Amino acid sequence: MDTLSYCEYAGRERILDQRQGYGGSKRSRYDPMHMSQPPSKRIHGSQNVSYDRNSLPAGWLDCPPYGDAINFIIPSKVPLGESFNDKIVTDKRYSPQQAILQQRRLGRELGLVIDLTNTDRYYRESDWTRQGIGYVKIRCAGRDSVPDAESVKKFIQEVTRFSSQHAHSKKYVLVHCTHGHNRTGYMIVQFLMRSESISLTEAINRFFKARPPGIYKQDYIDHLCSFFGEQLPRTFVCPQTPEWKRSPDRDDDVASGLQDNDFQASQMTNVSGKGDTKNAVGAGEMANVMIPSEMTIDDMLGETVPSNKVESMRQFCNEVLKLNSMERRFPGSHPVSLSRKNLQLLREQYYYTSWKADGTRYMLLITRDGCYLIDRNFMFRRIYLRFPCGNANNEGAAGNTHNNTLLDGEMVIDTDPITHRQERRYLVYDLIAINGNSLEPFSSRWKSIEKEVIKPRNTERSTLFKSSNPYYRYDLEPFRVRRKEFYPLSDVPMLLEKFIPRLSHPSDGLIFQPWDDQYVARTHLGLLKWKYPQMNSVDFLLEVGNNNRPMLCLYNRGRKELMDGMRVAFRDPSVDILSLSGKIIECSWDPKENVWVFMRMRPDKSTPNEFSTYKKVKRSIEDNVTEEDAEQCGWQNEGGTMSQLDAAAGIET
C-alpha cells in the first residue's frame, strides 16, 4: 500500500469494484461549478423513523480505527464509550481509553482530541479530560456538507495553538469525525496547506497514505480544489466508497446522517414517532442554494491569522521599512492634501500623477506560505493567490514563487456599466520589497511591479489557460491583480476630463507621486493628494453625548480630543446615529452651512485622523485648489495617449 499513490490506489480500487459488480455512477473529474446533490427524498424502510442513541454508526465496526500520524496529527474514527459495549464484540471495541493505550504503545502520547462529529452521544468529554488530555468540539454536519469557514478557522487555530504550546513535548492531536476520512481529511488537508509549502495534490496524497483510502467524497475534493485554486492531475480519480461503508439495504448518507446529528434526528422523529421527513429534506436542499450578494469595499476578505504569526509578519514589515520592529501602527505611506503652499512642489520636483481610487487601502505580503492582506489596523488576513517569480522556469506547482515580497495598493470593485457585473481588483501602486530586498527610487519600484510581479503572473496564466490539465486555476482567485498606471503631469487635464468619468470604479481625485523618492513610511509630505472639493474629507471618531448630541473627536499625538464647536449634519434620514457612536466616520465640509456632513462609516479604520492631518485638510479646503488649478500644474510636454488611459481604466478600445 505504501508504494501506491492516491491516484494509483483510487484507480485500482475502481477497476476492482467494476469487476466485482459494484459499479456505481462515475464520479466526474474536478468541476468548479459542481454542487452537491440535495439529499434523497426517499428514506428506506418505515416512515416512522426511530432514533436509538446507542445505535452504531453505519460501517463503524469494520472501519479501521486510526491511521498513521501526519506530523503530530493522528486521523481516527470516533471512539465509542462504554454505553456501546453490549453492541460490540470485544475484539471490535475502540473506546477513548483504548485509543489512548493503543497510541501509547506506538510511542504517541495524546495531548489533544478534536471531535468533528455533530453529536454528543458517542462518549463523554471526561473520558479524555480525566486523563489530562485536552478536548475540543467542532460541530461539522458531515454527509454532503463540507465544513464551513468558521469550523476550519477554529480547527486551524486549535491545532496551531497546540503545536506552539507543545513544540518540545512530542505530544499528538487525535482528530476524528465518525469514520475519520472525509471531514477529518478535509480539515487536515486545510491545515497542511496553511502550515507547509506544498501543493494540494501532495497534501491530499499525504492524508491518503496515512489513512487509506483518504477522502472518498467528490464534493470534499471539489471544494478543496475550488478553495485553493488548484486542479488535480488528470490521473486523479476519487476513490469509491469503502466496502465497510456500503449498505445494500439503505441510503447510507441518510442513515449515517440520522446517527451523527442529534438535531436532525430530533426533527425527523416527533413524540408519536412519525417524522416530518419532507421538512427535513427541504432544509437540506436549501443549504445548496447559493444567493449572490453585492460586493462592497467594506467586505471582509480572507481568513484570520494566529497572533504569533501576525507578530512575526509585523516585525518583517517594520524592519524592511526601517521602523521599530515592535511598532503596532500601520506602516504604509500616507499622502498629504494638496494646498497652495505645497503646490510649488509640483514645479520644483519630478512628479507623476494617477487617479485616486475610492477603494480600500491594503498592503499585500507575499510569502511561500501564503499571501496576506494588511489593513489600516495593521492586521493580517490570509488569502489564496499565486505569484511566480520572473525568473521561474516552467516547473509547475513546484516552481519558484515570491517570498517576502511586500506590495502597496488599494482594493476596488469594478462594475460593468451595461451588465452590472462586479469584479474585485487589487491595484498595485508600489513595490516596497521584492523577495526580502528593498527597492528605491519610486521609478524603479513602479517598473518592477510589472516586470517582477504582474508579467510573470500573466505569462503563467496564459500558459495554464491553454493547458488541458492546469496545475493552478487563476480564475478561482478572490480578485484580480493589476499595476496602477501613472502619467506625466501634462496628462492631468485628460485624466480629469476623460479618464476618471469613464472609470468602472469610483474615484475622488488625483495622486501626485514624486518620481525619484524612496518609500516613506507613514506621513510623506512630498506625496500629495487632490480631491474634488465636495469630497475633501476628514475621518472623525463619533461619540453620542447627552440628549443624543453627536460629538466629533480627533487624535492629538495619539490621544483622543473632543473638537468643541464642531457640528456634524446627517442628511440621510435613514442613518441610525446611535449605531455610529464609537465608530470612525468620514465627513466632508459644507462651507455654506459651516458644518461637517456625514459621508460614510469607515470600518477599515480604528482611529480618527490626527489633528495635524485635520489642519492640512482644512487648509486645503480653505485654499480651494480647483480642477483648473490642478490642470495648470502640468509642466511636461509629453503625455500618454487616450488608448493607454483607456487600458488602465479597464475600458475596451
Summarize the model shown.
This protein has 653 residues and is of the alpha+beta class.
Write the layout of secondary structure elements.
Elements (H helix, E strand, L loop, with lengths): L5 H15 L52 E4 L19 H10 L3 E7 L10 H4 L4 E4 L11 H17 L5 E6 L5 H14 L4 H11 L7 H11 L23 H8 L2 H7 L8 H10 L16 E2 L2 H14 L13 E4 L7 H4 L2 E7 L2 E8 L2 E5 L5 E4 L21 E11 L6 E13 L2 E2 L3 H25 L13 E4 L3 E2 L3 H8 L7 E8 L8 E9 L5 E8 L5 E7 L2 E4 L5 E2 L14 E7 L4 E7 L9 H13 L3 H5 L10 H8 L4
Parallel strand pairs: 1-4, 2-3, 2-4, 6-17, 12-14, 21-23
Antiparallel strand pairs: 5-10, 7-15, 7-16, 8-9, 8-11, 9-10, 11-12, 12-13, 16-17, 18-19, 18-22, 19-20, 22-23
Helix pairs in contact: 5-6
Description:
By secondary structure, this protein is an alpha+beta fold. It folds into 3 domains: 171 residues, Protein-Tyrosine Phosphatase, Chain A, CATH 3.90.190.10; 223 residues, D-amino Acid Aminotransferase, Chain A, domain 1 (2-Layer Sandwich), CATH 3.30.470; 103 residues, OB fold (Dihydrolipoamide Acetyltransferase, E2P), CATH 2.40.50. Helix content is 28%, strand content 21%. The protein is built from 17 helices and 23 strands. The strands form 4 sheets. Strands 5, 8, 9, 10, 11, 12, 13 and 14 form an 8-stranded mixed sheet that branches. Strands 20-19-18-22-23-21 form a 6-stranded mixed sheet. The chain has a 5-stranded mixed sheet with strand order 6-17-16-7-15. Helix 5 crosses helix 6. The longest helix is centred in the last third of the chain and has 25 residues. The C terminus is likely disordered.
